[in-house]
Each structure stands twice: as structure tokens, then as C-alpha cells.
């Protein structure tokens, strides 16, 4: 057992940290910088940030050097997540492009597709969204109903996508559609690299329970894709669909490190909130509840490191990622729920009237409900763990 | 970054597992329930032959001089098979205390005989109606011509009939001292008590002017409480591994049963009500394992966060074991409720360990203190990121 970072890894951390301190917007680190609230300005701010990252070669470090990455090791990726969480860097507007579409293009895309898209993904010039979920295909993704019908050299696409993150900023969509009725429901699926800027694509916002707008509905009414926009083979898109999802799993580290940070903030909250001149942390019951969360957030981090070790040894991520995802999202939810409880009745204040931190706790509490749903619900993770780790029989219906 | 046991440690685990499978795992525990001490003694000899008792004894005292992490797989396997005996008390409590704080003479006397499995230690700490706290130790020791005379009662002492020696915290002039008493010393009366967990025997010990040489005191006369608390860090790190091993076996039992037991034309493990419960058990198990590995690592490297790490592991592994042992019965249904199936043995042991050598509630305070949360003014310590 050895938790030390190599000298090379420490050097990498220092280089990134220095770059961030020099390149984050002025006032970011001392908390005086405010991100624009208006959607278009916010989108532009995030695009600018990504362009800056890519200019410093910090946008997609795991990508090969020839595509503008750094060929980063897995440990360097971990350090990257740690440092980004440490400064609470702005979110990556092109998360889907950088961490899902880009790597999938490199793996499966044609040379022309790689040439056309990869550089623009990196620079943030083209933002991507992921057209997977539909009203009747959530966890059961293979039940997609959006159709693509061949018409000469075109594909005519009709249907509806939902929960599409960042579609309101997106230029392109990695879209899953049904091109034929297969023997099994995951047959006859095809993946498209769809242009979002066309009359057949309509994006409608979904306002979340926390008042934010991350997701959208995407309506496809005779949207057009061309042969060159098909990735992989026609009717054989299920493995492309899965290949993209396999790349998604690398985001767990950031959640684990955020949880550490959020836990520390919770302890600070317990120190600063007073009732009748007594700080919450002076109550033994509060300290005990904090310790339960401490143990679980430490457990989450240590589980992650144990699975990381395995990944370092075997060279690819394992199904244990499902356990990490399940645990970190459930504990995060528990943590914010506890933060609301601890504040007592004052917790029901909101926005500028929130007693603590501009309703940081309330917002994150509401947001945390999404974490056990997005990226595969907790129930789906449990099925995966049961079937693929424990070897229990497949669920009824499969 | 390498957060895993080494190949050698995993290999050693396989030897221990193979040996315990050969002696039919919980058969040792079941024999012990029926009063057969012989099987337990044989298993101790067998484990000694494998090297389990020598591992963390320094080489100069006939041991292998290995570290705390090397004990992890052994305790996990002992927990899995519910092997009766004083392995934790001897290897994870007595040995490290004697090695760290004992006199040269004590080391010469005890460490080689622990390595050869000739010496086994139990601990007589609790007194009737008293707690594990410092003020709970009231058994009096009076100076008398270079000796101490012990007078008082200790209770819930585990497996005295398997022990050659007893570690006894006593009160000398208002200080706590830690004394090693041979279990056949004159003046010591052992009265067996019925044990809820029959795989561990309990006794009450009456000390009537038991004479012990002052050479038998570990460390100085006023250092007993501090030494005991250091020893408990090691004990709890070992115990958390034991609990993880036991929980792993439970998850395995539940998983196997859910795959073979059919109802409504399906293995019950196909139903989410069952499979999700098993996943919850598995998730807690792996979290307990991560915490216990880390706890043992902090012990081995004397890391600054060792107290909170070890206590966290003990708390979580204890809670996990209790929950999983209970869920295992529910998953087994009616057959799980019977004496014939091993499920109940794990439930009983989970309660034996719940508040053993310090209750969980007190351990919460210990970790909270170590994290600096009782100091209201102090800023939160930066997380110690491994």
C-alpha cells in the first residue's frame, strides 16, 4: 500500500495549479467573481473558459497528443480532477464532447469524422450534447423510438429526446435512433452525429426543481442527417451507444473529491451556525451525525482509490465504477439532506434571504436528487452490481 | 498510488483460507459451542504452523517481523470462519503492547511464546456494573514486598480456558496499571457465565489477593491507561479486518442462497427486493473493507490521522456486520431462522463485538475528538488526502 504521488505527478499538479491560478477569471479564487446569470452570456463565458483551457492544453488531458491532449496517465487525470475541484473551476460546457464524443470518435469514428470534429470539440468551438434518453426510454435505453428513415442520401429523423444536457448551447448531438426493427430491441439502432443548427431541431428548456436550466427536450421534426453523419454501421449502433457510455464513467472522481470538499464545508457550517449563542457543533448529537457522514465520505474516497488501484493494474475501468457511482451519489444526497436538517427551520430560506451562503445548501440539496438519477439511476446501478459483480440472475424482462 | 494488499498478502490469505476449508470452517466454532476445546487448540496449532502467530512478532523474538497489513488477510479469514479463540486479543492487543511498552524481560518471556502459540492472552477489563471508561476500573492493587496484591472482580472475560495469560487493568494509588497475570495464579477464581454468543466463552474472575510481581506490569505503574489505549488502536484495526471477513462470508452466503432458492419459478435473487438488499450489503462490505485497509495502513505507517481512521473503521465495520448478519437471515427466510444454518452464529457474534473493549458510543467521541470538532474555535483540519 502506498498513497504517495511520484515526483512527476507532483510536478504535474504544480504545473496545473500554477496555470489555474494565473488563468482563472480575476476574482475567481477569492470568491468575488460572479458568473453571468443570463443564459447566452453564461454560455459564452463557459465557451471562453474552455477555449482558454484548450490553449493551455488543459481541456482534454487524457486525449492523445496528436489530437491536442497530453496522453495523461490515469493518475494525472485523478490529480486533474482534484485540482479542478479544489478551485471549483467553472463547469466544462463541452463535457459531452470532451469526455464522451471525442474519445468515441477516436475509437470508432471515420478519419473524415475525426478530422471534422475533434479539434472543434477541444477548442469549444462546437459544443456537443447527447441524444439518448427519450420519454419512454430512460433506464431502458434500447427502447428508443426516435426513427431515422433513409431518403436518398439523407436520413430523415423524427422523435423526441429528453434530459438533454446543454442542448441549448449545443452545435452537434450524438444521437441514438432506430433505423430498423430488429429481432431484439437493441438491434436496428444507429448513431448519428447530428447538426443541431437546422429547422428540424427544436430545443425546449426543462426547468429543474432547483430553478436551474441544464436540461432540455429536443424535438426532431424531419431533422436531416447525411451518410457522413453515421458513426459506426447502420443498424449496428448499440455497441457504439455503449462505447460512448463507457467513457462517461471517468467523471466519478470529480464527484468523490467534491464530496470531500462539501463535507468540510458542512463542518464549517456546523461551526458557524448558532442557536441561542451555541454553535451547532457544540451539540454532541450534531457531532455524531457529522461523524457518520465523515465515515461515509471517507469510505467513498477510499473505495474510489481501491478501484483506481485495480484499474491501474488491469489497464481499463471495471464494473466497480457502478459501486463508486452508487455510493458517492447516495452519500452526497444524504450529506445535503443533513445540511438542511442541521440548519433547523432557518433552512427554508431561499436565495438572497438564505441565512447561509446564498442558499448553497438549499440549491445543492435540490440538485442532489438528480445525482441518483442521472448517469444511470441507483436502481440500475444496483442491477448492474447484482448481475455483473455478484453474478445474480438477470432481472425479469431482460 | 497502490491501495491494495500485496500479492504476498493475498497469497497468504489463500493458505489460511485453504486450511480453514480443510477443517470445515465453522465446524471449529460449532465444536467449541459443544464444549470441545480440543478442536480449537488444534486449529491454533494449525494456524501456528502456517505462520499466523509469528507474522508480526519481531525476528529477534522468533517471529517474522512483518507489519500490521500482513495480519489483515489472516483476521479476515478468521472472521469469515468465526474461528474461536484469542487471536485478536493475543496478536493485535497483547503482542503489540508488550513489544512497544514491555520490559526486555517481558519481551523475552512472552513474544517468542506468542510466536510459537504457547502463550495466548485474554483481557479482564470490565467490572460488574461498571463501564469501559477509566473510572470503571476499580480492581485494587496494593504494593506488598515487590509485588502487587490484586483484590476485586472482573467480568465478561472471554475464553479464559483458552488463555495462558490475562491482561488486567488495575488501580494502584489512583493510577491505572496494566498487569500480566498467569491464568493459573493462586487466588484467582474463575466462574463461567452463559454467553449469548456460544462461540466465545465468558467468565467472571474473582481476584483474592492475587500476588503478581511488579515485573509483570507493562510500562510504568501510571502508564496503564495510555498503553491500553495505544493497544486498542492496534486491536481495533485488527478487529475491523475480522469484521470485514465475517461480513464477506455473510454476503457470500446470501448471494449463493439467492441463486439456488427458487420461488414463483425463479431464483429469488432475480427479484429486486432480494438482489438490491444483497447489493446494499455488498456496498457496505466494500466500504468497510476500504476503511479497514486504510486503518491498518495508518497503524503500520503511524500516520497522523490514525485515531480517526481506525475508529471510523471499527464503527462502520461493526454497524455493517450487524446489519448484514440480520439481512442474511431475512434473505434465507425460514431456514435462516433455524439453528442448523450458520446465519445465527454471525448475528450472535456481531452483538458480541458491538461494544467489546469499548462501546461504540464512546468510540464516536474518540473520533470526534481526534478530528478536532470538540474544539469549537479551531478551524477545520484540512482533509488528510492519502
Q: According to CATH, what is the topology of the largest domain in chain B?
A: Butyryl-CoA Dehydrogenase, subunit A, domain 3
CATH fold-level assignment of the largest domain in chain A: Butyryl-CoA Dehydrogenase, subunit A, domain 3
What is the number of beta strands of chain A? 10
Helix content of chain A: 40-55%
Quickly give the structural class of chain A. alpha+beta
Distance between the termini of chain B: 9 Å
CATH architectural name of the largest domain in chain B: Up-down Bundle
Mean pLDDT of chain B: 95
Shape by Cα distribution of chain B: globular
Sheet with most strands of chain B: 4 strands, mixed
State the total count of DSSP E strands of chain B.
Answer: 10
What is the strand content of chain B?
15-25%
**Beta-strand share of residues of chain A:** 5-15%
Describe the sheet with the most strands of chain A: 4 strands, mixed
**Domains counted in the coordinates of chain A: how many?**
3
Fraction of helical residues of chain B? 40-55%
Q: What gyration radius of chain B follows from the Cα positions, in whole Å?
A: 21 Å
Assembly state here? heterodimer
Helix/strand order of chain A? HHHHHEEEEEEEEHHEEHHHH
InterPro entries (chain B): Acyl-CoA_Oxase/DH_mid-dom_sf, AcylCo_DH-like_C, AcylCo_DH/oxidase_C, AcylCoA_DH/ox_N, AcylCoA_DH/ox_N_sf, AcylCoA_DH/oxidase_NM_dom_sf
Keywords (chain B): FAD, Flavoprotein, Oxidoreductase
Family (chain B): Belongs to the acyl-CoA dehydrogenase family.
Protein name (chain B): Acyl-CoA dehydrogenase
List the helices and strands and how they pair.
The complex is a heterodimer of chains A (398) and B (386).
Chain A: H1 7-23, H2 39-55, H3 74-86, H4 95-108, H5 111-123, E1 128-131, E2 147-151, E3 154-162, E4 172-178, E5 189-195, E6 201-206, E7 215-226, E8 230-231, H6 238-248, H7 252-272, E9 274-275, E10 278-279, H8 284-314, H9 321-342, H10 360-371, H11 378-389
Parallel strand pairs in A: 1-4
Antiparallel strand pairs in A: 2-3, 3-7, 4-5, 5-8, 6-7, 9-10
Helix pairs in contact in A: 1-3, 3-7, 4-5, 4-6, 7-8, 7-9, 8-9, 9-10, 9-11
Chain B: H1 7-22, H2 27-33, H3 37-50, H4 72-80, H5 87-101, H6 104-115, E1 121-123, E2 140-144, E3 147-158, E4 165-172, E5 175-182, E6 188-193, E7 202-213, E8 217-218, H7 224-260, E9 262-263, E10 266-267, H8 272-301, H9 306-332, H10 343-354, H11 360-370
Parallel strand pairs in B: 1-4
Antiparallel strand pairs in B: 2-3, 3-7, 4-5, 5-8, 6-7, 9-10
Amino acid at each position: 500500500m502506498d498513497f504517495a504521488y511520484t515526483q512527476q505527478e507532483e510536478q504535474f499538479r504544480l504545473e496545473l495549479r500554477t496555470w489555474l491560478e494565473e488563468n482563472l477569471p480575476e476574482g475567481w479564487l477569492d470568491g468575488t467573481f460572479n458568473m453571468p446569470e443570463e443564459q447566452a452570456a453564461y454560455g459564452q463565458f463557459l465557451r471562453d473558459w474552455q477555449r482558454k483551457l484548450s490553449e493551455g492544453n488543459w481541456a482534454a488531458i487524457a486525449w492523445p497528443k496528436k489530437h491536442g491532449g497530453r496522453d495523461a496517465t490515469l493518475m494525472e487525470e485523478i490529480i486533474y480532477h482534484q485540482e479542478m475541484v479544489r478551485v471549483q473551476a467553472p463547469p466544462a460546457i463541452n463535457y459531452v464532447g470532451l469526455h464522451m464524443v471525442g474519445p468515441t470518435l477516436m475509437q470508432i469514428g471515420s478519419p473524415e469524422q475525426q478530422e471534422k470534429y475533434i479539434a472543434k470539440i477541444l477548442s469549444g468551438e462546437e459544443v456537443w450534447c447527447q441524444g439518448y434518453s427519450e420519454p419512454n426510454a430512460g433506464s431502458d435505453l434500447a427502447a428508443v423510438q426516435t426513427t431515422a428513415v433513409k431518403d436518398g442520401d439523407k436520413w430523415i429523423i423524427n422523435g423526441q429526446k429528453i434530459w438533454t444536457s446543454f442542448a441549448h448551447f449545443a452545435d452537434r448531438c450524438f444521437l441514438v435512433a432506430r433505423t430498423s426493427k430488429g429481432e431484439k430491441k437493441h438491434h436496428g439502432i444507429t448513431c448519428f452525429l447530428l447538426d443541431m443548427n437546422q429547422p428540424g431541431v427544436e430545443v425546449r428548456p426543462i426547468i429543474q426543481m432547483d430553478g436551474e436550466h441544464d436540461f432540455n427536450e429536443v424535438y426532431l421534426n424531419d431533422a436531416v442527417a447525411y451518410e457522413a453523419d453515421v458513426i459506426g454501421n447502420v443498424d449496428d449502433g448499440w455497441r457504439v451507444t455503449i462505447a460512448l457510455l463507457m467513457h462517461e464513467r471517468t467523471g466519478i472522481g470529480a464527484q468523490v473529491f467534491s464530496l470531500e470538499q462539501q463535507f468540510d464545508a458542512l463542518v464549517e457550517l456546523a461551526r458557524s451556525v448558532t442557536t441561542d449563542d451555541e454553535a451547532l457543533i457544540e451539540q454532541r448529537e450534531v457531532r455524531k451525525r457529522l461523524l457518520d457522514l465523515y465515515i461515509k465520505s471517507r469510505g467513498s474516497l477510499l473505495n474510489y482509490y481501491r478501484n483506481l488501484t485495480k484499474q491501474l493494474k488491469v489497464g481499463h475501468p471495471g464494473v466497480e465504477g457502478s459501486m463508486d457511482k452508487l455510493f458517492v451519489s447516495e452519500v452526497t444526497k444524504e450529506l445535503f439532506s443533513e445540511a438542511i436538517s442541521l440548519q433547523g427551520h432557518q433552512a427554508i430560506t431561499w436565495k438572497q434571504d438564505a441565512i447561509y451562503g446564498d442558499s448553497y445548501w438549499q440549491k445543492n440539496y435540490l440538485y442532489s436528487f438528480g445525482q441518483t438519477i442521472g448517469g444511470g439511476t441507483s436502481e440500475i446501478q444496483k442491477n448492474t452490481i447484482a448481475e455483473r459483480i455478484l453474478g445474480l440472475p438477470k432481472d425479469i424482462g431482460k | 498510488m497502490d491501495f491494495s494488499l500485496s500479492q504476498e498478502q493475498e497469497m497468504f490469505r489463500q493458505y489460511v483460507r485453504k486450511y480453514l476449508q480443510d477443517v470445515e470452517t465453522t465446524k471449529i466454532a460449532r465444536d467449541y459451542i459443544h464444549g470441545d476445546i480440543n478442536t480449537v487448540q488444534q486449529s491454533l496449532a494449525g494456524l501456528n504452523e502456517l505462520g499466523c502467530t509469528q507474522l508480526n512478532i519481531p525476528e529477534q523474538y522468533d517471529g517474522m517481523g512483518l507489519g500490521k497489513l500482513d495480519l489483515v488477510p489472516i483476521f479476515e479469514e478468521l472472521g469469515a470462519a468465526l474461528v474461536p479463540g484469542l487471536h485478536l486479543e493475543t496478536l493485535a492487543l497483547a503482542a503489540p503492547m508488550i513489544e512497544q511498552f514491555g520490559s526486555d524481560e517481558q519481551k523475552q518471556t512472552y513474544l517468542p511464546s506468542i510466536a510459537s502459540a504457547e502463550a495466548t492472552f485474554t483481557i479482564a477489563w470490565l467490572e460488574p456494573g461498571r463501564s469501559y471508561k477509566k473510572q470503571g476500573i476499580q480492581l485494587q492493587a496494593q504494593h506488598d514486598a515487590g509485588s502487587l496484591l490484586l483484590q476485586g472482580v472482573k467480568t465478561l472475560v472471554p475464553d479464559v480456558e483458552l488463555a495462558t495469560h490475562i491482561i488486567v487493568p488495575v488501580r494502584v494509588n489512583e493510577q491505572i496499571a496494566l498487569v500480566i497475570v498467569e491464568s493459573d495464579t493462586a487466588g484467582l477464581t474463575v466462574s463461567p457465565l452463559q454467553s449469548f454468543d456460544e462461540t466465545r466463552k465468558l467468565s467472571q474472575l474473582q481476584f483474592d489477593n492475587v500476588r503478581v510481581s511488579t515485573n509483570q506490569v507493562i510500562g510504568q505503574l501510571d502508564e496503564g491507561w495510555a498503553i491500553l489505549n495505544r493497544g486498542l488502536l492496534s486491536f481495533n484495526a485488527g478487529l475491523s479486518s475480522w469484521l470485514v471477513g465475517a461480513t464477506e462470508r455473510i454476503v457470500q452466503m446470501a448471494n449463493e442462497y439467492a441463486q439456488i432458492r427458487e420461488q414463483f419459478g425463479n431464483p429469488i435473487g432475480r427479484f429486486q427486493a432480494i438482489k438490491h438488499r444483497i447489493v446494499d450489503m455488498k456496498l457496505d462490505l466494500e466500504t468497510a473493507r476500504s476503511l479497514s485497509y486504510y486503518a491498518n495502513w495508518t497503524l503500520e505507517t503511524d500516520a497522523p490521522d490514525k485515531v480517526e481512521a481506525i475508529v471510523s473503521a471499527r464503527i462502520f465495520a461493526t454497524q455493517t456486520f450487524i446489519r448484514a448478519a440480520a439481512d442474511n437471515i431475512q434473505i434465507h427466510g425460514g431456514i435462516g431462522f433455524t439453528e442448523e444454518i450458520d446465519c445465527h452464529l454471525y448475528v450472535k457474534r456481531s452483538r458480541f463485538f458491538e461494544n467489546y473493549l469499548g462501546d461504540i458510543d464512546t468510540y464516536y467521541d474518540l473520533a470526534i475528538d481526534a478530528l478536532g470538532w470538540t474544539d469549537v474555535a479551531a478551524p477545520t483540519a484540512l482533509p488528510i488526502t492519502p
